[in-house]
Write a structure and sequence with these properties.
Strand content: 5-15%
Helix content: 40-55%
Shape: globular
Order of helices and strands: EHEHHEHHH
Distance between the termini: 61 Å
Largest sheet: 3 strands, parallel
Structural class: mainly alpha
Strand order of the largest sheet: 1-2-3
Number of strands: 3
Number of helices: 6
C-alpha cells in the first residue's frame, strides 16, 4: 500500500507531419494531437513544389485564388495550412532570400483575414488528392 504516483508526463509534446492542399488525410489526427495539447508542426506545405508547378492538377486552382486575392501562390499555400484548426507551425522549405520574402506574405494573408473560410474550403476541395495517389507521386520525384 504505497502512495500512488502521478502519471508520467507525455513522452512527446509535439508532432510533425506532411499536410498540404493536396495531402490532407492526416488532418483529423493533427487536430486530435492539438486538442491533446501537442504542438503541431507541418512540413511539405507546398507539396514539394508541386502546388506551384505548371501541369499539376492543383496549380490552376492555387493560381486562380492567389490572383483573386492578389497574393503569391506560395504564400497562399502556406496560409491555407496555417489557417487549419490545429494551429500548426509551418515549415516553408524556402532556400533563397526571394522565397523567404514571398513565403512570409502568408503571415499577411492570415493576419489580414484575406483567405475567407469558404474560399479556403473550396480550395481544399479542388486540390485534395487521395493519400495513396499523393504518396505514389511523391515517391517518383527526383530528389537532389
Amino acid at each position: 500500500t504505497g502512495v500512488p504516483l502521478p502519471p508520467p508526463p507525455p513522452l512527446f509534446d509535439c508532432v510533425q507531419a506532411t499536410f498540404n492542399l493536396c495531402e490532407q488525410s492526416v488532418g483529423p489526427a493533427l487536430a486530435e494531437a492539438y486538442r491533446a495539447g501537442m504542438q503541431v508542426i507541418v512540413k511539405e506545405a507546398m507539396a514539394n513544389g508541386r502546388l506551384l508547378e505548371a501541369g499539376q492538377p492543383a496549380t490552376e486552382s492555387v493560381r486562380a485564388v492567389a490572383g483573386k486575392l492578389g497574393v503569391p501562390p506560395d504564400a497562399l499555400c502556406l496560409a491555407a495550412v496555417m489557417q487549419q484548426g490545429f494551429s500548426p507551425m509551418v515549415l516553408s522549405g524556402a532556400t533563397t532570400v526571394e522565397q523567404i520574402a514571398s513565403n512570409a506574405r502568408a503571415l499577411e494573408i492570415v493576419s489580414g483575414g484575406k483567405l475567407e473560410e469558404a474560399t479556403l474550403q473550396e480550395l481544399m476541395r479542388a486540390c485534395r488528392m487521395e493519400a495513396g495517389e499523393y504518396w505514389a507521386e511523391r515517391g517518383r520525384l527526383a530528389w537532389n
